Every structure is written in C-alpha cells, then in structure tokens.
Amino acid sequence: MSQYDNVYELLTDDTDGRLCEDIPEQACEQTPRNFALLLLSLSLTKLGDAITNPKTTLAWLASSLGAPGYVLGYLVPLRESGAMVPQLFLGGIIRRLSVRKWVWVLGSLGQGLAMAGLAAVALTLEGTPAGWAMLGLVAFFSLCRSLSSIAYKDVLGKTIPKPRRGQLAGWASSVSGLIGMGVGLFVALVPGAGLEVAVLAGLLAAGALLWWFAAGIFALVEEQPGETGGGRSAVSSIKRLSLLRNDVPFRHFVLARALLMCSALSAPFYVALAQQGQASGLAALGGFVVASGLAGLVSGPFWGRYADRSSRLVMFAAALVTSGIGLVIFGVAQTQAGWLTNWWFLPLAYLLLSIAHEGVRVGRSTYVVNLGDGNLRTDYVAISNTVIGVLLLVVGSVGLLVPWLGNTGVIALLALMGLFGAVMTYRLNEV
Fold first, then answer.
1. Please, is 193 exposed, middle or buried when counting C-beta atoms within 10 Å of its C-beta (0-12, 13-18, 19+)?
2. Which residue of 7, 91, 209, 310 has the fewest CB atoms within a 10 Å radius of its CB?
3. Are 322 and 263 within 8 A, CB to CB?
4. Cα separation, 259 vs 253, whole angstroms
C-alpha cells in the first residue's frame, strides 16, 4: 500500500473498498494519488484566497494607498463576477480538450501573476493610479480564475468518485483554514502602522507563490482523456442558455444558488460595522482573517462529508445559518446596539457567517458536479457561473441602500434573501 493509499483511506474513511461506479477503472486505480495532489493544490489556492481576500486584504490595501472610494465598491463584485461571466464562452472552448488539467494550470499561473502585480502596486503606487491598477489586476485575476473554475470541476468529476468529492473540498478548506489562522494572528500582532502597506504587499506576494506552487502540483494529476464535443461560437454558447428553460432541475439549482449569494454579499457589511465601532488597521484585519481561517478549519470536513450524503441539505442548512446570523445582528442593532462595539461580537458573527458560506460553497460545488456528466457538466458549470456572475453585479448594488437602511438594514435584507434560498434548496432534487 502506497503513501497515497494511506492518506486516502485516512481522510475519506474508505474502509469498504473504492467506489468507482461513476469513473473509469483506469482512473479508479489513480484515485488515491490524484486525491492527494488535488487536495494539496486546492489547499494552496484556498489559502491564497484567505490571505488576499478582496473583502479584507484588498479593501485595506485600497484604503491604505488612498485609492478612490468607488474602488472599494467594485473589488468584490469584479473579482467574483469577472470569474463567472466569461465561463459561458470559455466553457465552449474547453470542450475541445480531452485533457483539461492544463487549463487549470494556466489559470493558476495567471492568478499568481495578478497577485504579484498587486504586490508591486502596493509598493509603488498611491491614490487614483493605484486604484485603477488594482481594478485592472483584479479583472485579470478573475479571468484566469474562470479558466480554473471550469477545468477543476471537470477534472474532479473524471478523477474522484462521487462519494469522495465533497470530502476533498472539505479537507482542503480545513488545511488552508488552519494555516490561514496563523497568518491572521501574525498580521494582528504586527506593531506599528508604518508597516501596514509592507505587510499587505508581503501577503500578496505570498499569495502569488501559493498559486504558482499549486499549478506545479496540479500538473502531476493523472487525468484520463474524456469527452470532446468541439468548440462553440459565441452565438452557440448563448443558445446553450436554453438549458435554463428546458432543464427544470438545473433551472431550480441556478435559482437557489442565486438566492444563496447572500452569504458572500453580507460579509463586507460585517467588516464595515466593525470599522465603525472599533479601531481599524492590521489588528482588525488579522481578526477577520483568523475568523475566516477558523471557519474553514472547523467546518470544512464536516460540510464535505455532509455534502457527499446530501449536498442539497448542506446548502439548506448553510442558508438558514446565514439568515439567522443576519437577523440576530439586525435585532441586536435595534435593541442592544452597544454589543456591536464589543471586541468579540462581530468577529464571532463573521466566524459563523464564514462557516455558513463555506457550507454554501461546498454544497453548491458538489451538487453541480453530481448533477451532470461529461460535457453536460461543463455546460452546467459554465452557464450557472455566468448567470450568477451577472446577477452578482446587479444584487451587489445593494450597497447603495446603506445611506437609507444602514449596514444592519442591508444585512437584514440579505438575510431575508437567504430565507428564500433555504426554501428553494430544500425543494431541489437529490443527486
């Protein structure tokens, strides 16, 4: 028994033999090795996401460099939507390839390059030029991320059996969360405001290395050639949107996923509340990084195993948690507003929100991979991500309501959105 077999059995509790009904026998033989390689590469990129998060690290950097205020408003939607919207067209191109791991490798190399560019911006630019450079690099990062997103789900579906896919995502979140906590503690304890930009640049440079290392590891995955259906023109790709009309289970999933955007959109308003009531700076940034890392550490394996049993119920539970936290914060703001200034209250709320968001991510990713096979899976991923990307730009404008509703009012509005999402996910078919 190889070291890969030992790791695979330890992390997946695979004591009853490998379950390979949905992947070829040749791929089944490579499952332990591929599981370990995918786990390591995914852990590195998740750690990169944690320490270069646009909700925290990039937002702090923009403020530190004196970038215009609108830069803060566009960072999160641009990064998320920029990674999703192109996928409808890129999915058609990727269909031409029987082996798709190299698409992921290319995307990871590009994401690392974008992070290296952001580190350079931190050290060399200020004001409006810095803001525009940041937005341009975030857009480039997002385009590269869209390549990796489509390719990863295809490679995962071809190399890892269905009952083990959620556990892979869960363990990756746990590993990256543990390391992310250490990074957050380091940032929180760095003395002196004068080091703020240098520390942020260091985080971004470290993120670049993480994506580059991940690309090298992912290249070692043994992927068997799969289906190809030829590329599509832009018009043909748009016509594939007919799946939303004709494929009822897929349409219901996309609608449910759209409502679950509340878990991601709520996060910046938690940070804004903390900045209002407490001193900002590296200590506050470190606290939120620690909370995010702890969420991945404690919830990753749980959500992963739960998703392999029912990814539908994972999304349902995560939506309920998201909504519950938002409504509690709104209630506290109306009755015990002083609690919002306590050093532990909002970081704890952010921790719970991050745990819920991790459940949304693991649940929706596992569900869409299991919903389709072959090129249909590629279509599902590309179409759903593109639609969600467009809707994110629209729903992300909820921040414009802050002058009228306040941060807590917007959080409450998004919490209600999550309640509708919980109803929709509960009504989904099991896959």
1. exposed
2. 209
3. yes
4. 10
- Neighbour count for residue 169 (Cβ, 10 Å): 27
The answer to whether 88 and 95 are in contact (CB under 8 A) is no
Domains in the chain, CATH or no CATH each: 3-10+22-426 (1.20.1250.20)
Output the pTM of the full model. Answer: 0.74
Q: Which residues contact 214 (CB under 8 A, 6 or more apart)?
A: 40, 41, 42, 44, 45, 48, 108
141, 115 in Cβ contact below 8 A?
Answer: yes
Percent of all residues in the chain with a pLDDT value above 70, rounded to a whole number: 83
Contact 184/293 with Cβ under 8 angstroms?
A: yes
Cα 214 to Cα 42: distance, rounded to the nearest angstrom: 7
Judged by phi (left if over 0) then psi (alpha if -120 to 50, else beta), residue 280 lies in beta
Q: By CB neighbour count within 10 A (0-12 exposed, 13-18 middle, 19+ buried), where does 337 fall?
A: exposed
CA distances from 58 to 16, 191, 253, 277, 293 (A): 46, 20, 31, 21, 17
Measured distance CA(139)–CA(143) in Å, rounded: 6
User: Does residue 306 surpass a pLDDT of 60?
Assistant: yes
Q: Which of 307, 308, 325 is nearest to 316 (CA)?
A: 307
**H helices then E strands: how many in the chain?**
19, 0
The answer to whether the CB of 63 falls within 8 A of the CB of 35 is no
Q: How distant is the alpha carbon of residue 280 from its chain centre?
A: 25
